[in-house]
Amino acid sequence: MAEMKSQLQGLIAENKVDQALDKFLDIAVAQGDRDLQNTLILLKSRYTRNKQNEQMNLISFTDALREQSQISTALLDLVSRYQPTGEEATTPGVGNTPATGSTPTQPVILFLASNPVDAAKLQLEKEFGAVFRSLQDGTVPFSLKAEPAVQAGELQQAVLKHQPYAIHFAGHGVSGNSKLPTGGIVLQDSSGQPQLVSGEALANMFKIMTRRIPIKLVLLNSCHSEDQAKGIAQTVDFVIGMSDTVPDNVAIEFAIGFYRALASQGDDVEFAFDLAVNQIQLQGITGDQIPVLYRKPVE
Fold first, then answer.
1. Does the predicted model carry a pTM greater than 0.70?
2. What is the pLDDT of residues 86-116, one digit of tens each?
3. Which of 122, 137, 141, 196 is packed most tightly, with the most Cβ within 10 A?
């Protein structure tokens, strides 16, 4: 059972959702689990329809990414909670619940992604898969939750909803200038167009949120996010930003090294950061000097 789950989770992490659906459906048929079969057939239909709509330009890339991520998250939840008939389990339902089969006591890592219509496409699905798979490799359980294609107006709600221990942002960033000294991150408005959220606004949000939510870590895996990281670090224990433009391969390798170490050592953020930088170096990729770590000032 553990090997089967690992195979399915690996396919999903590699963005081979169609293969994972087919393989899991075969297992459900072999087990004679009609409820699970029906659930997977519905997910397969959603997946196929979403791909068709994207190929025919009936929906935007942003909407397609949002639907794809919801399907992947639902499938991961099914896999993590499934037990064959006769092994004291009930067929799980579909829902946007923790991707790693977590319990309410597990610390939440909230994966926020944004790739507006007019912005260069990033490998956000691949980055999510890298984070998920790295957490699976460790022994410390984390609950990974995703809010794909997050809008500026939804940012507060996402944090309030999930009460995260850590927040990972994957998307575009803007460096500071005379008009906007702290730079910002690029989210999107209700129509999917780019909407800049300033570093000052982000810092204020975390200053307010940490009054009630014990957010310990923020990772801005976006270009030119060092100034935003400095501001957030006034109230959050550990904040990681990027001091320059970040190529996709650097962002993904850093995420792999960081979350693999975090899932092995718990909340040792500095250890995880150092190993993540080393992961870039081991791959022979230029850019190991781009990630920067800031700590909340000691009172």
1. yes
2. 554 443 333 333 444 444 468 999 999 887 6
3. 122
